[in-house]
Amino acid sequence: MKPASGSVFRALADPTRRSLFERLCREGEQTVWMLTRHARISQPAVSKHLAALKSAGLVRDRREGREMHYRAEAKGLSPLVDWLGLYGAFWRDRMDRLEDLLKRMDQ
Amino acid sequence: MKPASGSVFRALADPTRRSLFERLCREGEQTVWMLTRHARISQPAVSKHLAALKSAGLVRDRREGREMHYRAEAKGLSPLVDWLGLYGAFWRDRMDRLEDLLKRMDQ
DNA sequence: TAATCGCATAACTGATTGGTTATTGATAAA
DNA sequence: TTTATCAATAACCAATCAGTTATGCGATTA
């Protein structure tokens, strides 16, 4: 089932989690070990944050040997976009472009 | 100064706060008393949530006699939209699209 | 097989948070 | 002036959370 916008908001509310997500967006797929190197927190903390992001649908993991690779999930942001779409016309045109963007990213 | 996306995320992470904000978006300006009637929490709790939304730039207040009127602030969501555009676009292989996006968003 | 590595989980801790009731201040009404 | 109302603040509490260290488990390497 698709995660609700609530879990996405909560997942992104934490700056460390946002930072991890942003890094995965920028740098592409990363192992937990690589992510831990750049974060200033312990490996278990990174793993917990990744678990939160995963349950929110914002990342996917892939096992390769004993390494676990994480990558950002484009679709994970769509609940946010949907939620934003419900409110107001001020930012509507920006929103439309984002929806279009996410749609094309899906392909 | 413009609130960072962080405070907006944090403000919207709480379901009660989201609910208050959504109601203000739907119904328009409301007094604290009206908002309290529909929420299942006490008036001080509502006031605290409104203060959080206000400091995130998501609502504005207006005093009228002894009543305090709150209304949703459309522009308050733009840090979110900007953030989405920034990191959503990194999925794309080509950066020229991002530049185009940001350029049009500037107008 | 034994030792090591990569990661997740368990167990714990201090800080933060979302809620409460009590109180205060300001305005309106009697 | 006295009383009642609206909303913010204070003080407090239980629950959640983000971090830690210790441990366990599967996969690799010696």
Give a written overview of the molecule.
Two copies of one chain form a homodimer. The first copy, chain A, is 61% helix and 13% strand. Chain A has 107 residues and is an alpha+beta fold. Chain A has a three-stranded antiparallel sheet with strand order 1-3-2. The interface between A and B is medium-sized, with 30 and 28 residues. Chain A binds a DNA duplex (30 and 30 nucleotides) through residues 14, 16, 31-33, 36, 41-49, 51, 65-68.
Write the layout of secondary structure elements.
Two copies of one chain form a homodimer.
Chain A: H1 5-13, H2 15-27, E1 30-31, H3 32-38, H4 43-55, E2 59-64, E3 67-72, H5 78-85, H6 92-106
Antiparallel strand pairs in A: 1-3, 2-3
Helix pairs in contact in A: 1-4, 2-4, 5-6
Chain A binds a DNA duplex (30 and 30 nucleotides) through helix 3 and helix 4.
* Number of DSSP-assigned strands of chain A: 3
The neighbouring-strand order within the major sheet of chain A is 1-3-2
Distance between the termini of chain A: 20 Å
- The fraction of residues in strands of chain A falls at 5-15%
Give the integer mean of the pLDDT values of chain A.
86
Largest interface: A-B, 30 and 28 residues
Helix % of chain A is: 55-70%
Query: What is the helix tally of chain A?
Result: 6
Order of helices and strands of chain A: HHEHHEEHH
Decide which structural class fits the backbone of chain A. Answer: alpha+beta
Outline of chain A, from the CA principal axes?
globular
| Poorly predicted tracts of residues of chain A | none
> How can the largest sheet of chain A be summarized?
3 strands, antiparallel
Quaternary status of these chains? homodimer
The radius of gyration of chain A is 15 Å
